[in-house]
Amino acid sequence: QLQLRESGPGLVKPSETLSLTCTVSGGSIGSTSYYWGWIRQPPGKGLEWIGSLHYSGNTYYSPSLKSRVTISGDTSRDQLSLKLSSVTAADTAVYYCARPPHYYDRTGAFDIWGQGTMVTVSS
Amino acid sequence: QSVLTQPPSASGTPGQRVTIFCSGSSSNIGSNSVNWYQQVPGTAPKLLISSNNQRPSGVPDRFSGSKSGTSASLAISGLQSEDEADYYCAAWDDSLNAVVFGGGTKLTVL
Description:
The structure holds 2 protein chains of 2 kinds. Chain A is an all-beta fold. Chain A is built from no helices and 11 strands. Chain B has strands at 9-12, 18-23, 34-39, 46-49, 63-68, 71-76, 85-93, 98-101, 105-109. In chain B, strands 1, 3, 4, 7, 8 and 9 form a 6-stranded mixed beta sheet that branches. Chain B has a 3-stranded antiparallel beta sheet with strand order 2-6-5, with no helix packed on it.
């Protein structure tokens, strides 16, 4: 059974880089053609797609975050990483990694989610 | 401001049928499939409907989705107290080259 688990610092200072890891267990990111995604949710607000990664290295990013975001994958460790630079308080959110139900699915459907990790940006 | 527009709230009584709408444009709902999520506060979203009207395994048939033009809807029949949650629509946007979400609708079961 595929499981995703996000991890990383719960507190990041303004202007620094937020770095999170999503560990995939019960499956592999390197042998399957999924577009693995990162989604975030500020406290009390809605969902925001950050970007998606295919194991081949193909990535898609939210236009509003594109200049600050890097999503990459380590197939040897079955891990995804998210880096968001120059963070501000507006980047405070629960960050989720997720997987779509089908190969090559970029429709915005994600049927497997991690539990999420809360990141607060504050000095 | 979300690319997809949803009403902020909806409500119904147990047993009732409730419909939540999601409005978009030709670059998202008008040309791509719509997905719906249910999120109970404090938990990760759950995929409820994919490809406009497909229920993933385990989702009760009380939940149904449809799409017409640049709008989509999620219907919940036989409303139950456990359906009280936030609901989000999502789709791919060809102009933005991105996944876009609606702002979410908080469903209250009275």
